[in-house]
Amino acid sequence: MSKRMKQLMAKELVDGFEGSDSCVVVGLGRMDVLAVTELRNRLRDEGLKLRVLKNRVALHALKDFGWDGMDDLLDGPSALAFGGENGALAASKLLVDWHKKLPDTISIRGGVMDGRVLDEGNVRQLATIPDKPTLYSMIASGVAAPVTQIAVLVSEMVSGVARAVGALAEKSEGGA
Q: Looking at residue 77, what DSSP letter applies?
């Protein structure tokens, strides 16, 4: 492949990184065309891209974009998953799940997030973090629980007063 072609591929990859703050690097194992297509489609559904490139081209593009220190991650057949609103978080969840189901097809190598290089363990930890909607619902239920308890207590107090007034009214009607 000519030097000019490699430069164009690296520039295209750098342009694809725009708007992304992270990526996950996976090693490619024995994947047939159908498996790669399915993986790409699942990533695309999350707003992510999967790019398979020569390691030197990918390394050059990563450095041009400002993601240094990923030399060790790009060893052998590799692919980069990047993009989307949740970037590495969404990619890590999907790729770790994929690896659990089909361990021979990919291996999690690491990635980069907010300029920090991640190893395999970091990417696997990212996969355990809930996504934004789940976190929002957890916060909402945490805030709503005390309010609900207060409403129940006030309701019980009002019911208790109503029962006491009702008992007094019966007692006074019965005694009159």
A: S
**Backbone dihedral angles phi then psi of residue 115, each to the nearest 5 degrees:** 80, -5
Q: Which two tokens stand for residue 114?
A: 């907010």
Q: Look at residues 121, 139, 45 and name the one whose alpha carbon lies nearest to residue 83.
A: 45
> What DSSP designation does 30 have?
S
Taking the C-alpha atoms of residue 48 and residue 33, their distance in angstroms, rounded to an integer, is 19
Reference 110, options 85, 64, 74, 56; nearest CA is 74
Q: What is the pTM of this model?
A: 0.71
pLDDT by residue (tens digit) across 48-86? 999 888 888 888 888 888 888 888 888 888 899 988 777
Token readout for 73 is: 């991650």
CB count within 10 Å of CB 129 equals 12
